[in-house]
């Protein structure tokens, strides 16, 4: 904080500017909205009285000690809260509500005092709920036109376009260290090279999706290291989209420079995934951003210690950081941001798209999803949230526009089996799926916080095009950043830029194969999300004979979820793509790769395509040791439900692993 203190001392706030700052502060504390009502910070936060602030130094003192009035929940608490009086029941919630199963109480007395019937009587809880197009006897808006017009309407819909800040593929450990190098002392270098700048492409009636270069794969990989790992880990983290890269920077600053593990993890969780924050978090994060900006210049990168052993080198220009984080200093009010969030998340024009999601879900999950769409805060369903009284402006543009699509969901970036398991361990029921997500993320981020201080980890953060990044590494331009031309990476994670509509298979391998460590375990790992647009037999729903063969199995799977035969048309409209989870598309994928010129590319780069994978299975939920024709596995009805109805995969995604061929690899 010394740099920030010196920076603030240079600021001369006149009386007019100070009065305006106080006006904005008090305005936010009185904002109301149909979905949220903010409350002033409790006196325990140390920030509640602006009269105590006499200048920058007093602001800094308040910021460094400020904490929300309600501590982050360590386990599921009793849902009996009185937010306006800053009062909660601190006992564990052990008795679930028999009507909704979304909240729990410590006793019948607390339940009687608190019972919120509006949630228990939500129409979405009814087994007889039907989507609007059924009750109104019409075609859904996403099916009431020809395919070309339908696609154009979808892609041109401003609610369907946006950045991907959270990702739509579950996080993965890209090392799998003990089953590959099997050496806890080995120094390792990893590269996460990110995605191209555009998130949506229009081509041949296809919806082209892009993943996100956010921090989830890094967190999962670091947390999967054995506890006795003693080597050094260098992580190069790149994303061409400055908002993604800068949010990664802020997350690492929070987790690496705030010593309180619980506080840092909770602050990072909500900065990452919640549309609103406690004002105490907002102020502390603002201080971190200001300190970083003040340390940046246009001629050299900024090195920031992350605890005693780790560090972060920011290779993003000061100009780019300021431009990307300008929104964080926007004067937009809580009411402005909540109204914008409502406009995108709950617009009437997208009602059928929301109903298409709800119709696949169990009744309690419909309400849980609706609640997140209303509030945008990742917390247990019954947790107090009135102190989330400041907008998370990193999810919005400087003029207050939501950055993502209307369907962006943090659940898509994580393995739902792990999410539910973590929730249960903290007392949350599976019905409260965002409560489960809260406890899962808390565990993950606390573990990551500890490991930043336990392991030697060096992060290099950039916002370059993937091909440009490989060039500047190879020509020595990043030598001063401790990324010399001689560096070689043990893993290079390329996301889905392999897709033909992004960088493409040839360019990715030509640019990055020279930077791959010459060992039998070194891997370039990526996946194809959009390949079936160029290989029609890769998608079972476009092959009539294939669909007919798989239909009886698919119907059996769906009926096991409680679907009724009379709702068959709903299944077809909302869930048919899950039939791909039953379809072996390996032959079609092999033909696709051949048509992309794979053999020639491998010959040129001296790489090989692994037949048996060692990091990620060929397909989501397929066995890691399986061959390319192995199908996704669903051991029970819950597994099918969570991964084909709750998760948002197309089930045509395919992972690939490239390694040096026998001549190039050193054993």
Describe this structure in words.
The structure is a single chain. With 667 residues, this protein is α/β, with parallel strands linked by helices. The chain folds into 3 domains: 2-65, no CATH class; 81-517, no CATH class; 531-660, no CATH class. 38% of the residues lie in helices and 10% in strands. The chain contains 24 helices and 17 strands. It has a 9-stranded mixed beta sheet, with helices on both faces. Strand 6 (201-203) and strand 7 form a beta hairpin. Helix 10 crosses helix 17, helix 16 packs across helix 17 and helix 19 (505-512) runs parallel beside helix 23. This is DUF4470 domain-containing protein. Residues 165-277 form the DUF4470 domain. It holds the Pfam family DUF4470.
Give a brief description.
It comes from Agaricus bisporus var. burnettii. It contains 24 helices and 17 strands.
The percent range for strand residues is: 5-15%
- Rg over alpha carbons: 25 Å
Count of distinct structural domains: 3
Number of H/I helices: 24
Q: Strand order within the widest sheet? A: 10-11-13-8-5-14-15-17-16
Count the beta strands: 17
Shape: globular
Helix content: 25-40%
> Taking all residues together, what is the mean pLDDT?
87
For the biggest sheet, the summary is: 9 strands, mixed
Secondary structural class:
alpha/beta
Low-pLDDT stretches are 145-156, 197-210
Instruction: Report how far the terminal alpha carbons are from each other.
Output: 47 Å
